[in-house]
Amino acid sequence: MIADFESFKEVFIDDKIIYNHYGEIKNTVTGLKVIFIKILLASVEYIIKKPMFLNEFYFVFVASDGCKVVFSWNEVYNTSVGDNLFILTQNL
Fold this sequence. Notes:
Blueprint: E1 11-13, E2 16-19, E3 25-29, E4 32-36, H1 37-41, E5 58-62, E6 68-72, H2 73-78, E7 86-91
Antiparallel strand pairs: 1-4, 2-3, 4-7, 5-6
């Protein structure tokens, strides 16, 4: 629930362009307030025997409409993708 996120730092980010499945601009969303995924995960303590076992971890994010997306631990922490993942908390 969003209430569970109250202790995390929220930030406003730039407007985002939404594209349809043809790559055409569908909409632009503004006034986005978000919590970055890496901030949420910063307090997670992974119980592993060796750091290489993190390669087997993945995250499943489920939207309020049931839509799901999956990212590996490496995608989140070792690529620029992870720097751009966030949970939307407000859309003005």
